[in-house]
């Protein structure tokens, strides 16, 4: 797994105070992610939609049981397929700024080469 994009100050991808968009587009070099914002917010209590990816991501970013995201919110690890069919993980934080009013902040985008993102080369057996 490697980091594709870093947002040191965070990128707000959803703000309930301004109305939640259905989707948010995150541009990457030569690719783009269309994030279902409502699904991301719906999974924030569980820490995201991807448990296995979260375990792998723990080796690179602080994702302990009581760890907060850099924005101060709940950590969310969300798996997304890109327009080109590659698998990425969004490391974000979700803040509940008031009762049932949420702000989602994207901190980094990670790509997992083990999930079919590597070119498949034929294996030669002698």
What does this structure look like?
The chain is mainly beta. The chain has one domain (2-115). It is built from 2 helices and 6 strands. The chain has helices at residues 37-42, 51-57; strands at 2-15, 23-28, 31-36, 74-81, 87-98, 101-111. The strands form 2 sheets. A 4-stranded antiparallel β-sheet has the order 1-6-5-4. The protein has a two-stranded antiparallel ribbon with strand order 2-3. Strand 2 and strand 3 (31-36) form a beta hairpin. The model is unreliable at 119-126 (pLDDT under 50).
Summarize this structure as a short list of keywords or feature phrases.
single chain, 126 residues, mainly beta, 4-stranded antiparallel sheet, two-stranded antiparallel ribbon, 6 strands, disordered C terminus
Number of domains: 1
| First-to-last CA distance | 31 Å
Q: Characterize the overall form.
A: globular
Q: Helix content range of the residues, please? A: 10-25%
In the predicted model, the low-confidence regions spanning at least 5 consecutive residues are 119-126
Secondary-structure element order, as H and E? Answer: EEEHHEEE
Radius of gyration: 15 Å
Tell me what portion of residues adopts beta-strand conformation.
over 45%
Biggest sheet features: 4 strands, antiparallel
Number of helices: 2
Q: Which whole number gives the mean pLDDT?
A: 78
* Content-based structural category: mainly beta
Count of strand segments: 6
Strand order of the main beta sheet, please? 1-6-5-4
Task: Give a quick summary of the entry.
This protein is mainly beta.
Layout of strands and helices, then pairs:
Layout: E1 2-15, E2 23-28, E3 31-36, H1 37-42, H2 51-57, E4 74-81, E5 87-98, E6 101-111
Antiparallel strand pairs: 1-6, 2-3, 4-5, 5-6
């Amino acid at each position: 797994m490697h980091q594709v994009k870093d947002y040191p100050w965070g990128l707000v991808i959803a703000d309930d105070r301004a109305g939640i968009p259905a989707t948010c587009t995150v541009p990457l070099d030569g690719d783009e992610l269309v994030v279902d914002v409502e699904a991301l917010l719906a999974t924030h209590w569980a820490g995201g939609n991807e448990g296995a990816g979260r375990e792998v991501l723990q080796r690179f970013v602080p994702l302990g049981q009581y760890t907060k995201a850099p924005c101060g919110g709940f950590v969310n690890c969300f798996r997304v397929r890109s327009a080109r069919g590659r698998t990425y993980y969004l490391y974000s934080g979700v803040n509940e700024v008031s009762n049932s009013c949420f702000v989602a902040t994207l901190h980094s985008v990670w790509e997992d080469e083990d999930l079919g993102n590597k070119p498949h080369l034929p294996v030669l057996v002698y």
